[in-house]
Write a structure and sequence with these properties.
The longest helix is centred in the first third of the chain and has 13 residues. 30% of the residues lie in helices and 28% in strands. A hairpin with a 2-residue loop joins strand 16 and strand 17. By secondary structure, it is of the alpha/beta class. The radius of gyration is 21 Å and the shape is globular. The chain is built from 13 helices and 24 strands. Bound molecules: shikimate-3-phosphate (S3P). The site of shikimate-3-phosphate has 11 residues, from helix 6.
Length: 435
């Protein structure tokens, strides 16, 4: 297990943000490209792959499962696919690091393998609930052995012959949906997942691009098992969840104008743009195009005075990872922002209801924790402070954004987690900052 030295990120207030930048590749799509590339026949080449630690953990796991992968070097990766039935029993424990996506999607794939594997991760990941995937995968025929009734890592998986499943998921989670669909690749017949509201659909889109038969009806996705997957060329769009930090940083500083190029604007991921507009921000989408089955565009944002808003219901899965930084936008906005139906925040890399509220309060923000969200009374002047990341990359970056508009200096402790999803974050801020 890796131990890392603690790092601090020092943030000084900025007058405004200005300039043009391409954010790193999408984390969710980078993971899926490696996984499907490994299970396909033939070569998959990936460009603009996210060189973040989460996605590198996925690459390591597939190397340990016997897949020949060249790279990644400077965002380029070449995978020699082994086909659906070509993975090999790993001789080592598979270490997913901090990555819930690596773990849960991999569990779906391992459920269909005729061998035994063991998965673990860092302290945060070892505390995150896995029964949401091990329970349905057990129904399909896989055998799991883990702490707390197969809920916590480390977890042993004995895969085997799987039955198809029609699963009604209690949570809108792309990780749950994807784990079942990936297991469904190994079950003869139709496997389906129905969600309470639609979560990100990258798995469905990419399975189709690789040649699987996938049908989407309302909130139900159905996959035909045992397809032949064929290697693809994939250019990963920029990650809207990374763009979010820069978009909010510009939106809260009047006079700012930032253009982010080639950002993924998949409608299951673009809730942040809708909310920023609701709050009165000026976000313009230009140069819209398709890239490997995903919509991408350039986003131009200008800073302005923001208003509080309500974020709830089916909007939540469309911006779940952006809530920490949206809470920062709300603290700088005039009036009340109410975030509801977001209890899932409690089981992310940290309990984000508690960590967002606790850290923003240190700046002087008026923020209240709810069982399923947050109440933020915006408009109080914020003062720079010392924050903790709690090992959560999105908490570290959200608090850095809060510091940009505060009076005085802010220090983010535990900032070494930022490259989990956004290597180069502080350079990006420096490049765009006008003091
Ligand atoms: C992800 C799904 C979401 C998200 C995570 C990435 C994915 O998690 O929060 O950062 O790539 O499928 P849930 O499926 O738990 O909502």
């Amino acid at each position: 297990m890796k131990t890392r030295v603690s790092m601090e990120l020092v943030i000084n207030p900025v007058h405004k943000l200005q300039g043009t930048l391409a954010v790193p590749g999408d984390k969710s799509i980078s993971h899926r490209a490696v996984m499907l590339g490994a299970l396909a026949q033939g070569i998959t080449e990936i460009d603009n792959f996210l060189m973040g630690e989460d996605c590198l953990a996925t690459v390591q796991c597939f190397k340990a499962l016997g897949v020949n992968i060249e790279g990644p070097v400077a965002g380029k990766l070449r995978i020699y696919g082994v086909g659906l039935h070509g993975l090999r029993e790993p001789a080592e424990v598979l270490d997913a690091g901090n990555s819930g996506t690596t773990t849960r999607l991999l569990m779906g794939i391992l459920a269909g393998q005729p061998f035994c594997s063991v998965l673990t991760g860092d302290q945060s990941l070892r505390g995150r609930p896995m029964a949401r995937v091990t329970a349905p995968l057990t129904e399909m025929g896989a055998v799991f052995l883990g702490r707390q009734r197969n809920n916590l890592l480390p977890m042993a998986v004995r895969g085997g012959r799987l039955q198809p499943l029609h699963y009604q998921s209690p949570v809108a989670s792309a990780q749950v949906k994807s784990a079942i669909l990936l297991a469904g690749l190994y079950a003869a017949g139709e496997t389906s997942v129905t969600e309470p509201s639609r979560s990100r659909d990258h798995t469905e889109r990419m399975l189709q691009a690789f040649g699987a038969a996938v049908k989407v009806t309302g909130n139900t996705v159905t996959l035909q098992g045992l397809p032949r997957l064929t290697g693809q060329q994939i250019t990963v769009p920029g990650d809207i969840s990374s763009a979010a930090f820069l978009l909010v940083a510009a939106a809260i500083r009047p006079g700012s104008r930032v253009r982010l190029t080639g950002v993924g604007i998949n409608p299951t991921r673009d809730g942040l743009l809708q909310v920023l507009k609701q709050m009165g921000a000026n976000a313009e989408i230009i140069n819209e195009r398709q890239q490997g089955g995903e919509p991408v565009a350039d986003i131009i944002i200008t800073g302005s005075k923001l208003q509080g808003t309500r974020i709830a219901g089916s909007l939540i899965p469309r911006l779940i990872d952006e809530i920490p930084v949206l809470a920062v936008a709300a603290a700088y906005a005039e009036g009340l922002t109410e975030i509801r139906d977001a209890a899932e925040l409690k089981v992310k890399e940290s309990n984000r209801i508690a960590t967002v509220a606790g850290e923003l309060r240190k700046f002087g923000a008026d923020i209240e924790e709810l069982p399923d969200g947050l109440l933020i009374r915006g408009g109080r002047p914020l003062t720079g402070t010392t924050c903790e990341s709690y090992g959560d990359h999105r908490i570290a970056m959200a608090m850095a954004v809060a510091g940009l508009g505060a009076r005085g200096q802010t220090v983010i402790r535990g900032a070494q987690c930022i490259p989990v999803s956004f290597p180069g974050f502080s350079d990006a801020l420096k490049l765009l900052s006008v003091q």
